[in-house]
Structure prediction request, 328 residues.
Amino acid sequence: MTIKEAGQGKGIEDDPDFYKTLLESTKAIPWKIDWNSLTFTYIGPQIEHLLGWPRASWNSVEDWAERMHPEDRKRVVEFCLEQSRKGADHEADYRALTQQGEYVWIRDVVHVLRDQQGNMEALVGFMFDISERKKVEIERDRLRQELEELSYLDSLTGVANRRMLDQVLEREWMEARRQQQPLSIIMFDIDYFKQYNDSFGHFKGDECLREVAQLLTQSATRARDFAARFGGEEFVLVLPQTDASAAKTVAQRCFDKLKSADIHHPSSPVAHRITLSCGVATSLPAHTDSLEHFLEQADRALYRAKEGSRNCIQVACSDGKCVETDWN
Prediction:
């Protein structure tokens, strides 16, 4: 026996008051927009509790758009209009302005209504308050980004690690080749670092690595200049749009800063302070050149510096030879 047959009057499916009461008792905010005039023909009373704006103030889609965060407005309005014109159901997340001047995250779920001839007649939907969900998502994304950034940092020195260095080198190499701009790389090795550790212990050795890393970072002053720990006591500077002369100037600036820091190293045969051996390479990449060969040039220059007098800069030339600059 149906409810109607049981003497309850007309059936639920024929009772608009029942549906109205049901819609207005939920937390979701129902609404209806006439497609031809783009005006609201209905919006649930819950809107006043959520956003504070009186129901009577929701007249057209312009009121809806104007009460949207400026950063979301263009994206959401264009998307919703495009989907509506296609006659496609859709949903969109955005920040809605409250009457008190704050913003609440809203999810609008939109359905298309058609008349008997199949023409678009209206849009109906629900607004959901998703502020708490968004807070969780934003915090989760922040933590994910933080973890990702940490995975690209050397945990000891705080500069970029080898993983990040490989990605930056690949990107800058491709960009230098595309723009036909010089790319320089400087490889550094701390002279007699094992003896420093033997004299002062690994704790002081770690402090020394951190200090050298910061000095090198400070010497690379432009936004795209990039410092990384290559491994052990080796560091690298990547210098986009930098020719050999400018790269050598940066290397000498690094030596200057390290000399001023005067990190005591009595066991060094070169000086009674921490010093560096340095290899510099510069390339104007052609399509026949390889990044691997470029890195080999810098590595060979560094090797010559370490096998020679140390505490010096070796600049790799295009013919494979090196020019040594002593630094005392």
Notes: The chain has two domains: 12-136, 154-326.
